[in-house]
Amino acid sequence: MLNRLAPIAAALAALAAPAAAETPVPAPGAGSGAGSGPARLDDPDAALVEELVVRGRLPGPAWWRVSDGDTTVYVLGVPSLAPKRMQWDRAIFERRLDGANVVILPFVNVRAKAAGSLGTAVNLVRLRSGGPFEERLDPATRARFVAARTRLGHDARHYPTNNPLAAGVQLAIDYRDGHELTNSDPTKLVRHLAQQRGVKVVDKSYDLGPQLGGILRTPASVGRLCFDEVLAQVEAGPGVTRGAAVAWAQGDVEGALANERTYERCLATISGGRSYDERTKADTAAAIAAALKQPGHAIALVPLRPLLARNGVLERLRGQGFTVKTPGEE
Fold first, then answer.
1. Which pTM value belongs to this model?
2. In contact, 43 and 261? CB cutoff 8 Å
3. What are the backbone dihedrals phi and psi of residue 307, each rounded to the nearest 5 degrees, phi first?
4. 109-134 burial string, b = 16+ CB within 10 Å, else e?
5. Which residues contact 255 (CB under 8 A, 6 or more apart)?
6. Which three-class secondary structure state does DSSP give residue 131?
């Protein structure tokens, strides 16, 4: 059962926080008073440290450097969503991989621990019940949703839930699969190359289990915000993500930052999302600080916006007294 439900489990955990309850799904802005417009999701990393947003001078993607007296960690900001198997100039990466002490991968993984897998499966079954989801939507949104899922090759039974966040996440999975988009590139390739060279790899996984009970308790109106964000992304198509990936590969940091961040906006709105965002940034900064204790050099991959945001990874490291240099200082 858990294996069968794993795809939606992983995506729900990417939101890492509670979602919609088993109640009718109101449209955003409903009941909010005359003159109020539709609610929108905030991005926890919308505010950037502008002096860090600098185009790379070397070929390929942009790198930042964090250093103390005898150690440098080369930090590669990576997309949160990108085309599968995207091409990029790896010459700088390959050179820096030689002799690296460690490669730190993005701290974005989630897993269901064995001890709690039965409870996790039960909660996932609850999330995948009460559908088809489209029967709970207002007519206008239902028409948009039916058109979107039909283009992706799925029928109403593919969304067997009354939970708007679960429906939105499944729709996002289908959209990504349909357009060959992923949140694991270039991380998957970097892991492979590091292991080939015998370089130690550091990553971190967060426990899925405690999240799912909260997902079932969050108000339906909050889950509906997330669903509408995903639906709008599906309707817009992958052009923004593909364009941002091209910009990323060319060291165009500002262009790369234009990427779609549906999950991140959901994460910020859902109860507990801000604390999860805080935890991943703190853990990433701590891992880089730990790598700086060993003389030599290391590599870290960090999603771009958490890397460059105010109170993000680089600003935290700079606050600890480490020297931070931009791609323009290469």
1. 0.85
2. yes
3. -70, -45
4. bbebeeeebeebbebbebbbeebbbb
5. 243, 244, 246, 247, 248
6. coil
169: three-class secondary structure by DSSP: helix
Q: What digits encode the pLDDT tens for the residues 180-194?
A: 999 889 999 999 999
Give the whole-angstrom CA distance, residue 290 versus residue 287.
5
Opening angle at CA 91, ends 87 and 93, nearest 5:
90
CB environment 42-59: b (16+ within 10 A), e (fewer): eebbeebbeebbbbbeee
**Token pair of 58, please?**
């070397």
What is the residue-wise DSSP string for 190-218? HHHHHHHHT-EEE--EEESHHHHHHHHHB
How many residues are there in the chain?
Answer: 330
State the Cα angle at 211 between 173 and 301, rounded to 5°. Answer: 60
| 88 and 313 Cβ atoms separated by less than 8 Å | no
Neighbours of 14 (CB within 10 A): 19
What is residue 21's three-state secondary structure? coil
For residue 321, give the nearest of 50, 72, 66, 63 by alpha carbon: 66
Give strand pairing partners of 299.
74, 103
Whether 268 shows a pLDDT value over 90: the answer reads no
pLDDT given for residue 24 in this prediction: 42
Structure-block tokens of residue 257: 């930052």
Tokens of 254: 């500002």
